[in-house]
Amino acid sequence: MSLRTRDGGDDGADGDRTETTTGAKSSADGDERPTEDSSHARSVAETQRVLVITGLAHKNERHYGPLADVAGETTLVSLAPVEGVDAARNVTVPQVGPRLLRVVLLFAVALLEARRNEYDAVASISLFLYGCYALGLKAIFGLPAHLGIIGIDLDHHATQRYGPVVRWLFRRFDVVSVPGPDHAARLERCGVPAERIARLTNPIDVETYRPEAAGTVDDDSDSDFDSDRDDEDAAGYDYDVVWVGRFGPEKDPHRFVAAMDELESRGHENNTAVMVGDGALHDEVAAHIRARGLEDTIELAGWVDDPIDYYHRSRAFVLTSERDALPLVLLEAMATGLAPVVPRVGSIPDAVTDGKNGIIVSDRRPETIATAMERLLDEDELRRSHASAATEVRNTFSMAQAGSDWAEIVVSMTGGSQQYSGSRR
């Protein structure tokens, strides 16, 4: 199965994970129209049983919920009981000892599950160690194996001294899924045949992430940080730009601080920003903000379970990643109606078209990022146009589309030759 290039229009109107419309596409007015290929893939997938090996924690529902919606039966072998998927059968590793012990036990539990019950395929996301465990089950039981690529697999592991081993492992999978064309091309350079590479949508909940009138968040979620702006800003926005992510080297939060400093040096002294997230670099970033005298410009919101309030309270979204796949926070921000400023890394250009629904900067220098922010903040019509077009990701990156992708992946792995009978060994 080769990677498909989409131009949008796929169903994403309801965003429901457990009642996905089978094989449907959406028109501009929200009507659903079934397609023959997707309907066939789903009809075959619903006869198959898939075993999943995972430690993705709270991300399991988003990544594997669409699979559980289309497969005949999905069983998740997970590290912790809170990691389950509503529509799947969940098997949990015994909660004993340190995490390292539970990671080892994960393979033992998956091995026992595959031996006791009858499965047609095994799925995983992230090569180490879940993908390796999937290959172990393939070797022992002959199960077709899937690997979902995340950024670190290609950006880091494949480029290290042990890279030849990583690339060899990639080629052992029956299907390797990626978020977009950039990763597909890189997989081919690793020797993975094009017919084994599949597109797997990084989905968002389109019922949750949708445009909303500015300033309509609960008062309790607001802080005194922007109290001086609440009455002055006629649009009701609290922040000019929002940055969301893990405070780690790959997300490069320091670069955002430098870009805001550059913006202020150009006379934009009243612009404000919020950085949402936490991580190893948080204290360094806080010190960086103080060193540049930006305490009144940049708010550090810390970790939040859901940044949607901050999306609704901001005028634009900025991403500064050095490396990334296709970050969920970008898709969420666009779905809520924020025009993004992003670098050309990973599969980001699969979601952002420069000059149409956002700005892709030519390089990651703070001056270049500041110029892009300046354009969006100064040119209201440009920002509104990009923001309006950005919401189209609600169609392309929906749970329903992810379900269709999973159906094709399952069919590609299994060939649909084994009919699910509900029997167990």
From TrEMBL:
Q: Which UniProt keywords apply?
A: Transferase
Protein's name in the database: Group 1 glycosyl transferase
- Name a GO molecular-function annotation: glycosyltransferase activity
Q: Where is the Glycosyl transferase family domain?
A: 226-391
- Keyword check for Transferase: yes
Give the compositionally biased regions (Acidic residues).
217-233
Q: Upper lineage ranks?
A: Archaea, Methanobacteriati, Methanobacteriota, Stenosarchaea group, Halobacteria
* SUPFAM superfamilies, per the entry: UDP-Glycosyltransferase/glycogen phosphorylase
Q: Which residues lie within the region annotated Disordered?
A: 1-44, 209-233
- Provenance organism: Natrialba chahannaoensis JCM 10990
Q: Does the keyword Transferase apply?
A: yes
- InterPro entries referenced in this protein's UniProt entry, alphabetically: Glyco_trans_1 (IPR001296)
Compositional bias ranges of the Basic and acidic residues kind: 1-19, 28-40
